[in-house]
Design a protein that fits this description.
By secondary structure, the chain is of the alpha/beta class. The chain has a single domain, classed as Peptidyl-tRNA hydrolase (Rossmann fold). It contains 3 helices and 7 strands; from the N terminus they run βαβββαββαβ. Strand 3 and strand 4 form a beta hairpin. The chain starts with a strand and ends with a strand.
């Protein structure tokens, strides 16, 4: 589960994906388990839920380069694109509204574009979190 955003720009709507991952880590009781993984240039926490092993990932890069971290983690943890969930902001959804999307286009999102390019696939499931238009 990769939370897309601009690392270090906490509290901005564009980094909503990372905020969602922080919340998920707290709910899974692994919030203290974040560690820097230099191989994939990300903060990583491992968790388990409903019999699944999860890799929580917050890329330590700008949004336009998040895909490099996601692709590196996929290689390290032996994940296929269809095993990956991307959590990202969506300007076209009202603030706080969410939608799940499987595959398809980037819908203009540069972080998703970066992931599709780096993984050479658009088969990732996406949790789109509405941030509304300014």
């Amino acid at each position: 589960v990769a939370g897309l955003g601009n690392y270090g720009l906490w509290g901005t709507r564009h980094s909503t994906g990372m905020a969602v991952l922080d919340r998920l880590a707290r709910q899974l009781a692994v919030a203290e388990g974040w560690r820097v993984d230099r191989q994939c240039c990300s903060d990583v926490a491992l968790a388990a839920a409903h019999g699944l092993e999860l890799v929580l990932l917050k890329p330590r890069r700008l949004m336009n380069l998040n895909g490099l971290s996601v692709a590196s983690a996929a290689e390290i943890y032996n994940l296929r694109p269809e095993d990956i969930y991307l959590v990202h902001d969506d300007l076209d959804k009202a603030l706080g509204k969410v939608a799940i999307k499987l595959g398809g286009s980037t819908r203009g999102h540069n972080g998703v574009r970066s992931c599709i390019s780096a993984l050479r696939s658009n088969e990732m499931t996406r949790l789109r979190v509405g941030i509304g238009r300014p």
